[in-house]
């Protein structure tokens, strides 16, 4: 999940208004639960934030306190995990964020991959791990579709987009965006890859059916088992691992290496680094890593 946690005054106000307090025992359980299932470390300084965010969830579930919520997590953790992750996280994403990654794909990687796949009849696969509300995989799909059009290729090419948050996945599947969220897209691409919303979607832009054909959206917890076997030519995992501790990052990078083609690429966010965490990759660009063994 491409997400971040930040302080929110409204969260604290909501918690105070509710009269509920997140005690030591329940916070300790939630911290352990979130770390185990999401890889996110919740320090004591995040208690007020967590308390305020979860008050909304307690109300939605008609629960009378944090102890009842903890009991719900104990009895059926998988059923509530996605909602918990959504509640404590703020999705941060945009179209063509960190444009140099897309330039590398369009100008160098995709032309080479497509030519290679044409000769070998192999599949071309890209994974957006932590796709949030869909801006990243649809931006990747635009670049991929344009590369395929330029070559006239019939290569079997697809993008897998995964996230833990049910709300984020719902938005990604809808593929409809306000005009304010289209700032990173050129006018040419807006006209080519988006349709003007009508009726219920008045005032919104809807992604072109061709992009939907290229993108498969699925729920996935990066810390749990992965059903896909790869191999992938590239994995985008941007603004995700910054909130993990060192052991979690190390395990995740090795799992990514196991799913990448030899010489495949891993893209991280602008504030993330693999330095001292993995021997399986070489740094080849700004937060761009290539599998070396």
From TrEMBL:
Gene3D superfamilies: Chemotaxis receptor methyltransferase CheR, N-terminal domain, Vaccinia Virus protein VP39. Keywords: Methyltransferase, S-adenosyl-L-methionine, Transferase. It holds the Pfam family CheR_N. S-adenosyl-L-methionine binds at residues 91, 93, 97, 136, 163, 221-222, 238-239. InterPro entries: Bact_Chemotaxis_MeTrfase, Chemotaxis_MeTrfase_CheR, CheR_C, CheR_MeTrfase, CheR_N, CheR_N_sf, SAM-dependent_MTases_sf. The keyword S-adenosyl-L-methionine applies. Residues 15-293 form the CheR-type methyltransferase domain. Its EC number is 2.1.1.80. Transmembrane segments: none annotated. This is Chemotaxis protein methyltransferase. GO terms for molecular function: protein-glutamate O-methyltransferase activity.
């Amino acid at each position: 999940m491409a997400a971040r946690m930040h302080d929110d005054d409204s969260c604290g106000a909501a918690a105070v208004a509710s009269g509920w307090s997140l005690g030591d025992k329940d916070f300790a359980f939630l911290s352990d639960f979130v770390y185990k299932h999401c890889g996110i470390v919740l320090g004591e300084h995040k208690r007020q934030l967590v308390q305020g965010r979860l008050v909304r969830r307690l109300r939605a579930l008609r629960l009378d306190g944090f102890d009842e919520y903890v009991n719900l997590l104990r009895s059926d953790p998988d059923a509530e995990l996605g909602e918990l992750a959504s509640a404590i996280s703020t999705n941060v994403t945009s179209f063509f964020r960190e444009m140099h990654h897309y330039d590398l794909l369009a100008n160098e990687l995709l032309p080479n991959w497509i030519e290679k796949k044409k000769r070998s009849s192999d599949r071309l696969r890209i994974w957006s791990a932590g796709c949030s509300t869909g801006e990243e995989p649809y931006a990747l799909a635009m670049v991929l579709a344009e590369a395929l059009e330029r070559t006239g290729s019939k290569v079997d090419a697809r993008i897998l987009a995964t996230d833990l948050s049910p709300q984020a996945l719902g938005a990604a599947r809808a593929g409809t965006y306000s005009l304010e969220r289209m700032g990173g897209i050129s006018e040419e691409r807006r006209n080519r890859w988006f349709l003007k919303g009508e009726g219920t979607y008045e005032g919104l832009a809807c992604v072109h059916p061709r992009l939907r054909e290229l993108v498969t959206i699925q729920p996935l917890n990066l810390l749990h088992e992965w059903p896909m076997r790869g191999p992938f030519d590239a994995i985008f995992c941007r603004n995700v691992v910054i909130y993990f501790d060192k052991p979690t990052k190390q395990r995740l990078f090795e799992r990514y290496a196991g799913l990448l083609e030899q010489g495949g690429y891993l893209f991280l966010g602008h504030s993330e680094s693999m330095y001292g965490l993995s021997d399986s990759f070489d740094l080849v660009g700004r937060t761009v890593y290539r599998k070396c063994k």
